[in-house]
Amino acid sequence: MKEFILKEIKEKAQSLYNYQGDIEVNPIPFKGEWGFSTTVAFKIAGKQKKDFKKALKEVSEELASRLEFGEEIARIEPVNGYINIYINTSVYAQNLITSVMQKGYGKGAKKEDKIMVEYSQPNTHKAFHIGHLRNTCLGASLVNILKYAGYEVVAANLINDTGSHVARWLWCYTTYHKGEDPPEKKSGWLEEIYEEAAKRLRENPEHEKEVKTILLKLEQGDKEVRALWEKTKTWSLEEFYRIYEELKVEFDTYFYDSRLYEEGKEIVNQLLSVGIAEKSEGAVIVDLDKQVGTHDIYKTYVALRSDGTALYQTKDFALAKRKFEDYGIDRSIYVVGAEQKLHFKQVFKTLELAGFEQAKKCYHLSYELVMLKGEKMSSRHGNIIFYDDLYQDVYREALKEVEQREIVQKNKEETARIITLGALKFSMLKKDNNKTIIFDPKEAVNFEGQTGAYVQYAHARASRILEKETPSEEAEFSKLTTEEKNLLEVLATFPDAVEQAAENYKPNILANYVFDTAKAFNEFYHACPVLQAEVETKKARLALVLATKVILQKGLHLLGIEAPERM
Known about the structure:
CATH class of the largest domain: Alpha Beta
Strand order of the largest sheet: 7-6-5-11-12
Distance between the termini: 36 Å
């Protein structure tokens, strides 16, 4: 509708005043009537050589009188130089419902950019925890949203399968647990050995030499160490794949640290040869502040240890180049915790100095901590919140909610599973990624709060209504109530919510949108009887229920959340 109005204003502004400049058309704040307003008269009047106020009045009145729209527009009013165009509510409602029911409603036109979103990045030999959950939900939903907005997207995952954390684990296993096999659920057992390693090394730091020897042997390809590493790494990967299947998350490609460090070392040597890096006490360092002429913004960092082993920076040099060279992408988004902000500033700036121009197309999408009852996660100190434990806590709360409500009891376990995953994902997505999340399992499954369960239940409620009666293809929207208008207004903004979430890399925009839709629908549901309404009113309301169901389903799907038909 906005484009339709803008086209007519452009044509008339050009034919009447030869005006071809920018024209803005903005929605009038909704007060029970839909409309748009334009300031084009101000711009045209400003170019005329006469009294501005007089010219503004003349232009706004003449332009308003010459605009031609048809039945879609109820009236046009010039007010203080503005031209306000009000939409025929009945026609608009019908057109909106028709648009919503089309398969691609809200879908963006095909974009030129190809984007890679790298997310999840779990560490082998450690447990998948609540921080990985936020990362995974954020990345997976962003992939869905960007695709729907029209971008070609590559979903990527970097498995951190080498480094000091792996060496510590291997040291502890070979020293104290050699020959042990893991239980069926391996995550907790893997984490326990890592925690034990951290504790033993804190108590006896002299063992760090043994850990460094294992890391060096691993990178140099020692057969015995690599065989154990391959076997134990598989245990971790099996756990990751199980969790991804449970979360219904898929990746187009996987990267592995172990396949990047040699290439990363070559890049470090290139940095040395061109003077970007330098030797210091056997290690290779990069003093970025000296390189770019700033003070204490990028700082100095180690690019390669004195024993020749790689760090995260070493491997990220190789990864950044491989993404662009192997996949032909235009943008690279890294979904990684906020504590790595300096790390990525250093990596991107170093590559840029080395002539890798695509570094300017790399973006670190950071996110803050997830905390449970005031506890900060730290796998080094034994108070990590495992994903599996969290899932079980939420599932127990979800099952309680199901059992105490007049909802589906026949398969209550399946309903509880759907609610659990919805609760976990929605809780990770509803807040801005730069805000800390305080997670409460009981609150997360509350059917009355800003939760996944609230939105899922609204979808199920709409589905139940439509089970009882099928909407007619012909529905006339007249004498709309405030609740009906409010709901229509929310449905109309779905395309904007998708676009804003995609362009700003903010899935929380869409998460809050689906909540607002569910809220508007529930207000409509309680104020406007559907099946008991008079025939013509019922037709219109059934169409509105169906449109709402479609939008809730689309929105939840883009967030990676199931939209149940029954609850």
